Each structure stands twice: as structure tokens, then as C-alpha cells.
């Protein structure tokens, strides 16, 4: 008996049938019903006791989606806050909101420390979309003071989150460093402390005790910073691998601040988010369509190597729901060999669907994806923020002025 994901993969392949002669592979395919189901599932978990204010608790990271059409599914569900990491993501969000006439409800946290040239581009984008709220991130007190200088011509103060290093040792400063800098932060003239960003991405789902210690540190710092920040301060924590512990933490929940979680992977789901998927009953929403390009006696090879799926993950970096007897081996750039453990082998040229171990790095490899809706023809969507730009501004304009 095939499992539910095998049945869904078979249904998706059947829907794609008429397109297969013209559809290239590898191709990224997104099941919109699963996207909507996953968004609703996160909102239900956020909303325990909150009713319609559930959407207020979630600031999803759009690094997973990078696609205007998918961001619009969040907006349609009432989720208007988000987080992003790159200027391409910020630009995609602002331009999509402008196109839809909804800039005034967009609230983005650019959760990435900006150097001066990137800061100038962010400000230009902000100036072009003044109705949208964009908050920036300070890596350290020195970075906050430097940004204050870069912003000296800003007409209105810019909202700033202090990046708090809760043990991940990637960006931000420890709580003690921020606490000692409160007097300096009070002197900022063009920046206003609007929140604390404490991303605990070093912790696994099961490390709830360590997470609680980190959240207490964040709450203690929030209490100390309250005198110089906006009222209420916003506290942003947690991705797909720890949001549930954060939602349950009494002090994050009950303080004079507003706490929000920021998982993004939950919208599409992948193999490595299994604990979250189990808790929320998530459905797999993103698949890579691949074809068999070589067939041996106990092995087939697909046209979906490390340039097509989860390039950052060790083998097996994906799963084939409809072919459980095939084990993905180490990929090369354009090839993915699969070893037969049991069952039949797919035919040469056959199309198969793969579930990525890591969906964020998979989406980033594609320029376009195919959106599959129930009872609608498949729609081609541009992944506008995948990859990386060459110049800060279009056509290499100088942005230093
Ligand atoms: C700053 C930040 N916030 C949130 C997330 C959450 O993302 P995910 O849902 O993929 O765990 C990440 C993941 O890398 C991150 O770096």
C-alpha cells in the first residue's frame, strides 16, 4: 500500500502528464493546496488562545520561497509580516506589494547585517516604497552607531532590531554587550530600537531546555532595553527547528513585548523538518521533477544532481515517495545515481518526483517553478529572488551618493 505522499506524488505526476513532452527536467513543482494547508497549520499552532490574531505571531522567513506568487499565498492568509535576508528578497517583496497596492500592510525585517553599500541600496528601496515598513538589523553597538551615521539624511527614523547572539556564534552580539551599550544606543538619532532578533538556529527541536535558557536571556535583555525602545518592543526568534518551544515559553508569551516566530521552511516542508511536519501535519509542497537518463541492472541515474536539489546536504539528500526501494547515492553536479534495494526500476526516460532534504537551498537553484492548483491549469511562476545579483543597483549605477 503506498503512503499518502506516494499517492500525492502519483497524482501530481498524473496532473503533469500532458505537459511532460514540453517540460524540462530537473524542474521545481509546487503543490499550492499543500502550501495553503501548511500556512493554515502554522496559524493554528500560533493561534492557540489568540483567535484571529494568530497571524500576528508569525514573521515567516521568505528565503524559503523567494517567489512573489508564493508570498501572495501568505498575504491571502493574513500574514503580512515577514523576514528576509537578501536585497533581492527585499526588492521582490516591495515590488510585489506595490503591484498589489498593499505596501501599507507590508512589514519586513531585513534580518541580515548590512555593510555600507548594501545599507544605501536598502535605503533607496525604502525611499521608493515609503508606505511599507522595513526594519533593519544591527550586528553590534558599533554597527548601530555606524548605521546611524549612514542614515544621517533620513527624513524619518529607521526601525532597528538588535541582533542578539544566543549561542549560535554566527552574527549579533551577546546580551551582555548590548546591555553595556544601552547609553550609546539611547544616543542614536536616525535609528529607533524597535526589537530584538534572537535566532537560535544552533538548537535542535529536542533541545527545549537550552532554548528556554536562551529565551530567558532574551527576555532579560528586553526588560533592560525597554527604556530606550519602542513600546512594545518586538522579540523575533525561531525557525522551523525550534518555533514550538518558543511559542510555549511563558515569558516570551507574557511579557510587555510582542513575540514573533520566524519559520519559513514550514510553508513548503522538506525532509529535515520532520519534527515540525509531524507536529503540524505538514504536507510536502515542493518537489523536483527529474527523469531517468541511465539504467543499469540495479541502478538508475536521474538528471538531478547537486545543481538541482539540496546541494548543501549529504547523501541521501532527497527521497522518492513513489519509489521507496530506490536509495539516492552521492550526486555529482548533473547526475543523481540511485541504488535499487528492492522493487522495480523506473524505465529510461521515466519522470519521477523527489522530495528535497533541504527545500530552501533547492528553490534557490531555480529561475522558475510550476505552480499546481486544484482544478486549475498549472501556472509558471518566476522565482525572482533566487541566485545573487551582480550590481547593487540596476545597470551598475553608483549608489554611493
Ligand atoms: C535569521 C533566520 N531566521 C529564521 C530562519 C528560519 O528558517 P527555517 O524555517 O528555514 O528554519 C533562519 C534559517 O536559516 C534564519 O537564518
Automatic annotation (TrEMBL):
EC top class, as a word: isomerase
Keyword presence, Isomerase: yes
UniProt EC number: 5.1.1.1
Signal peptide region: none
Keywords assigned: Isomerase, Lyase
Pfam family, one: D-ser_dehydrat
D-serine dehydratase-like domain boundaries: 285-373
Domain of life according to the entry: Bacteria
InterPro entries (alphabetical): Ala_racemase_N, D-amino_acid_metab_enzyme, D-ser_dehydrat-like_dom, D-ser_dehydrat-like_sf, PLP-binding_barrel
Molecular functions (GO terms): alanine racemase activity
Family of this protein: Belongs to the DSD1 family.
PANTHER family assigned: D-SERINE DEHYDRATASE (PTHR28004:SF2), ZGC:162816-RELATED (PTHR28004)
Protein name from the UniProt record: Alanine racemase
Organism: Nannocystis punicea
